[in-house]
Amino acid sequence: MRFDQLPTPCFVVDEALIEKNLKILNGVMQRTGAKIVLAQKAFSMTTFYPLIGEYLSGTTASGLYEARLGYEEMGKETHVFAPAFREDEIDEILSICDHIIFNSFSQLEKYKDKALKAGCKVGLRINPECSTQVGHEIYDPCSPGSRFGVKREDFRPELLEGVTGLHFHTLCQQNSDDLETTLNAVEAKFSDFLPQMEWINFGGGHHITRDDYDIPRLEACIKRMQEKYGLEVYLEPGEAVALNAGYLIASVLDLHKNGIDIAILDTSATCHMPDVLEMPYRPPLADSGEVGEKPYTYRLAGQTCLTGDVIGDYSFDRPLQCGDRLVFGDMAIYSMVKTNTFNGMALPAIAVQDKNGDCRVVSQFGYEDFKMRLA
């Protein structure tokens, strides 16, 4: 099957582009000795787990189900962090995870002995109180009132016995200069505890595979922790694994006019690309331009009843017609993992494009996938 023969809506992930990203990440591992694990919250397409496992050290999870996915489908190191763990899930989590990271000293007190008995490496998430994000505070774990991590003023050193690592995650789609700034804050607040640790986890949000990413600065940050404190360094990017490696193909269903030209698509920002509304951002679209850049401008909108189900305004070289296919870019990350069936919207099919350009559909969804989630 060729790209233009795929059904719509459909997520398509390019194998060659995934491997290109993995080679960049593996290069960092080879040069520094750091370990990089896939943050499944951004990309959980298990079709690619065997390939990812060839290049990376394992997976990290945000709870039991993601932990099971990484453990069962990749079978390498399995890390887990959650703001709080459930008592009815903790035993299963500990049976499959290598690293467990607690968000508070109360969670540490409650589960540390059980985790150590299970053979897990125990870590604690810290809050360095160093905000480096601008414009999307919803993703800033260091914002005032954040529920993530222990601040220095709340530290309880007497409870650190058995804790072998510290974890921080403060970045979102950022470069290594922000990591360096954060690392300075970590040292300023927690350097007295680093010598007694065995490992440190830099968290995610590192856009390592972006063209302008400063990899030498990242590697200097890694080596700094290795040489100064003798720590093993972990990174857990999600987006970097599948950055710019996926597409969402959609079709124009109808054309409408209300002061502006509107195209109704068979996809939805609300259901299929919710980060467009949450972030918010305007996803790239092949063969389009900014408003007014090309002769014909349209507002692209979804099928749902939500008035704000709008992907964005784009311009084109020619008028859109019903049946036209549109290809949105960078749709492998935070897309498939966030889809929903609001309004009974069907989930997009999921396809792989192999290195030869051939495509195959690996998942399709229907009415039962909508119905099974409801009572």
TrEMBL record:
Residue ranges occupied by any Orn/DAP/Arg decarboxylase 2 C-terminal domain in the UniProt entry: 62-331
Cofactors that this protein relies on: pyridoxal 5'-phosphate
Signal peptide (from-to): none
Keyword flag Lyase: yes
GO molecular function, one term: diaminopimelate decarboxylase activity
Major enzyme class: lyase
Superkingdom to which the source organism belongs: Bacteria
GO terms, biological process: lysine biosynthetic process via diaminopimelate; nor-spermidine biosynthetic process; spermidine biosynthetic process
Binding-site list for substrate: E239, D275
Entry keyword annotation includes Ribosomal protein: no
InterPro entries: Ala_racemase/Decarboxylase_C, De-COase2_C, Nsp_de-COase, PLP-binding_barrel
Pfam (any one): Orn_DAP_Arg_deC
Alphabetical keyword list: Decarboxylase, Lyase, Pyridoxal phosphate, Spermidine biosynthesis
EC nos: 4.1.1.96
Protein name in the entry: Carboxynorspermidine decarboxylase
